[in-house]
Amino acid sequence: MSDTNVPTSEYRPQASEQPPTRTTSPREWVRLNLFNTWYNSLLTVVLAPLVGYVIYRALRFVFVTARWEIIEVNLTNFMVGTFPRGELWRVWGAIIILGLVIGLGLGVTSRASAETARARGVAAGTSWSLVARRAAPALLLLVALVVFVRTATPLLLLAAALAVAAGGYVAGRWIPPQHRRWMHIAVVAGLAGSYVVMTQFGGVNLAHWGGLMLTVFLAVGGIALAFPVGIIVALGRRSKLPAIRVVSMLYIELIRGLPLIALLYMGWLILPFLLPIGFPTPGRTWRALIVLLVFTAAYVAEIVRGGLQSIPKGQYEAAQALGLPAWKMMRLVILPQALRNVIPALVGQFISLFKDTSLVLLIALTDLLGVARRVTQQPEFLGQGLHAESLLFVSFIYWVGSYWMSRESQRMEQRLGLGER
Amino acid sequence: MRITKLLAPSLVVPALFLAACTDDGGGDNGEPALPDDEMVEGADEDAPGNEDGDDAGSSGGTLAEVRDRGVLNCGINGAVPGFGFVTPEGEYEGFDVEFCRVVAAAVLGDADAVDYTELTAETRFAALQAREIDVLIRNTTWTSSRDGSESGSFTTTTFYDGQGMMVRADDGFESLDDMDGTAICTLSGTTTELNLESAFSARGLDYEPLTFEDNDTLREAFLAERCDGWTSDKSQLAAFRAEWPEEEGGSEALTVLDETMSKEPLGPVTLDGDDEWHDAVHWAVIATIQAWEFGIDSSNVEDFLDADPEEDPEIARFLGIDDFDPGLGLDPDFAVNILEQVGNYQEIYERTVGPDTALGLEPGLNNLWTEGGLLYPPPYR
């Protein structure tokens, strides 16, 4: 609806009207930024060798002294934990299905945004440098993993997954707009399909998932579930019905008042006692996911409430004046603006959830960090001080994930014009 | 607008999640992950036999529950050298893990029917009390308060450990009495710290404790000669000694003093109030020691089964040849399952922590009573 209201010819300054760009030589830049005052010069002289030395030592460790064999040997452990090795084809199957669905989704979205851009009269073309920049963290991670792969099979399967994803992208770009709504069904079917491949027909119980796979499952599952639940609770807290308002408020205040570790313990050890007799107890991985969901949703609800309160009353009144029913007013007018305003806080919460998944270590699940802790206790690596290598490797994966989320959120902010309009 | 588009599919996800959740509702208690038909059949066969042999309290007990489930839930430590760790192939191995397999072989007839749960020191008894696990075999020291207020029931000890002191051989310390005024490295928040204090104050010695969060930083400190002694359980000291870097003189450069500062009997634990299950675990462990005493191991158990039962009636009873049932709720031939699938105590010890492994532990107290050790199995009759 907003698309039609956007003026098709925006004012674009001529080249002669643009402010002159200032050019500084590197030499001048150094003088202006590092040696502009006597105390800055002093700081530079003191800190430059120190920083240089730290960087030198870090690089030397990573490329010379570190013994990465522990990662090479345990790469499968880091990826899937104690997942039975005879069933690894299921993981690859799920990765290929997800690759197809993600490729498809990206293809459809990219065509949709290209069409929107064209409709607005903005020059749109596939910007390969943008694609490269967006994919950089994922590629960085893949390179870091591929370095440690010692056999050809995973490389071939990885190539196959990437090829399938690329195929999905091409197919997604080809889908005409009127069939686009099928994409949602395809995404859900892909998720369901990969879950079935993993767990059904003699598959592997979730309790045996581990490593990066478990971390991603908990983080992505937690984010995907906590987001809608959090929005519903936020709306509930602002509801005019006292019962819903009180329940939402109690939920938020209770959950936010408890540490995540306490909640995880409760979900693990106390939840089974609270369920009615005969009710099947969910597996411990599900219990962990439920706890992460319940915990994060409370924070998301408060963030979203902040967004809702930032919307001026005029927007509500305008929507009502148009005759929109309450849910349409929320969906079409209020929520898009409210959520746009809270993207930075929301993504911050999701990044923190991603890292909080490592706490499941305490409730007998072995996530990525758990694997790092245990590989150094293997007889062949025992007592050799290899903690640094395994922790560095794991930290790198966490960092890439968090950085990627942060980058994507910044991109979304720019695209939606946060802070500009 | 665009965000609401994103929102639409994400609202579908909870529905999917709920479906998946009830679908997999069985979780730990449901269908075993190990696709093992034999195991389930075995459990079915056991059930009537169990009714015949032992009708006291077999309904609703852990033993019946484990058999129904077809999988033993065993609580272990996944990161302790030699006792429980994960191989690069993703398999659990180690001394404690072998005893999980022993119990599974005795109760279910399949040593592979084990679901391992990695527990931290803080959660191990909570997990036992919440029945998340059937048996806890996680280098747990048998103490009065754990037997009492933690509601654990300890079976026979599988490993006799003790706190020791490791020093550099060049420093010339022969016993704790030589170590007056030295710096001692230890882990913080453990009983070793307290034992160290009582051992030194009892001898009227002065020392400076240096505490660390984990063994690897402690090792670095000891390597940098920041302390003269390193105190921990002797099994752990032996592991670090065996892996001491060659450029530092290898394992010869270090000595573990003879003195033992504390007793650390480690063994399996079951939950209080289920004697039938406790007996089953107890005797599964005892069977590995008894087999060693009889000289039966995984390689020669077939010969013993073929031998004349009259020759040694005790062995015949032990292997269930004459269908002797002591009423433990276990199959008469449970010891054969243990021996064929896992082995006797000596085999387990030598495979996981013995002199030829990374830990390189001499049996010491973990030897048969006839050899000067503490392993003394009660008679099987």
Automatic annotation (TrEMBL), chain A:
Domain of life, per lineage: Bacteria
Keywords, in A-Z order: Cell membrane, Membrane, Transmembrane, Transmembrane helix, Transport
Ranges annotated as spanning the membrane: 37-56, 89-109, 130-149, 155-175, 182-203, 209-236, 257-279, 285-304
Localization: Cell membrane
Region annotation (Disordered) ranges: 1-24
Entry annotated with the keyword Protease: no
Gene3D superfamilies, sorted: MetI-like
Sample GO molecular function, one term: transmembrane transporter activity
Signal peptide: none
InterPro entries named in the record: AA_ABC_transptr_permease_3TM, ArtM/GltK/GlnP/TcyL/YhdX-like, MetI-like, MetI-like_sf
Family, as annotated: Belongs to the binding-protein-dependent transport system permease family.
Protein name, UniProt field: Amino acid ABC transporter permease
Organism: Phytoactinopolyspora halophila
UniProtKB/TrEMBL annotation, chain B:
Solute-binding protein family 3/N-terminal domain boundaries: 71-296
Domain of life: Bacteria
Name of the protein described by the UniProt record: Amino acid ABC transporter substrate-binding protein
Signal sequence range: 1-19
Family stated for the protein in its record: Belongs to the bacterial solute-binding protein 3 family.
Compositional bias segments (type: Acidic residues): 34-55
Keyword Signal attached: yes
Organism of origin: Phytoactinopolyspora halophila
PANTHER family: AMINO ACID ABC TRANSPORTER PERMEASE, AMINO-ACID ABC TRANSPORTER-BINDING PROTEIN YHDW-RELATED
This protein's UniProt keywords: Signal, Transport
Key word Signal present: yes
InterPro entries in the record: Bact_solute-bind_prot3, SBP_3_CS, Solute-binding_3/MltF_N
Region (Disordered): 27-62
CDD domains per the UniProt record, alphabetical: PBP2_BztA (cd13692)
GO BP terms in the entry: amino acid transport
